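Q: Here's a chain of 317 amino acids. Please give me its 3D structure as tokens.
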Amino acid sequence: MNVLIYGGGAVGLGIASCLLKSNASVDIIAREDTVRQLTIKGLIRDGIFGNVTIPPQNFKAYEDISLVDTNRSFDFICVCTKSFDSETTARNLYEYKEIMAPDSVIILFQNGWGNTEKFLGYFSENQVYNARIITGFIRPAPHQVTITVHADSIHIGNLHSHTATGRIERLCTVINNGGVPCIPFQEIGKDLWAKMLYNCPLNPLGAILGIPYGKLAENAYTKEIMNTIIHEIFAVMTADNLSTHWENPEDFIALFYSQLVPRTSDHESSMLQDLRAGKRTEIDSLNGEIIRLGKKHNIPVNVNQTIWDLIKYEESK
């Protein structure tokens, strides 16, 4: 199995570690410093699923897709970039599509909503899959990834087909054998909106206040903010004929506080990590998508708008 990891951040290195542990052939496209450290020190994974060390000679790392050997083709391309890079990534992959076999599959390991449409501008519906991840990955060093929390298996599916192909089942098995649970899932759209319901209240509010998820659930004021965000999301989902695993916000909120937040109570959001590093966040593909749908259907989403404004202020600093 030949796999290209496009994006060497925490998620990209986490998925790469699973594939390499299962003896897949892996190439990684990452930033210059990450490539340098990977080439010298190899890939290290630690955390709740145990320690894995992959020597540098067991994989290849590049700074740019133009450096990848075009004489080989990849069975899978795992896109692990930030959501705001989706358009650029899709265009780059299309420009170098000779590295893809006719039956190659692209899997988007990304946050938020709206990434798929960017790739469908270049590739067919049966080529583009989505992965839903509720596992905490952080990167303490450019060549190292730590798995901090895990709420559920990685789910992989296609938004336009409910049939899991044998290729996807095989990829899930390889990732699963590499240490992180992963399964094919037919209704991935419902999963992606379930993650939106999880991320939109927790990720930006935790970033603004600088606290982990569990602290947000302990305070009546922050709970009120999160509850309103969730209600606004359900309103725009209903208007846009989208669905998730819960029929109403109250059912989700009950599970949110009883199970989902406790499983990840010590986790600090990726948005907080980005702000600390002076990086752009993924707010546009999270609460920004709720604002877009609210405008589309003339539904007020004032709390999502306020959260978006505050994160944009923090980015501007």
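Q: Can you summarize the key feature?
A: The longest helix spans residues 188-209.
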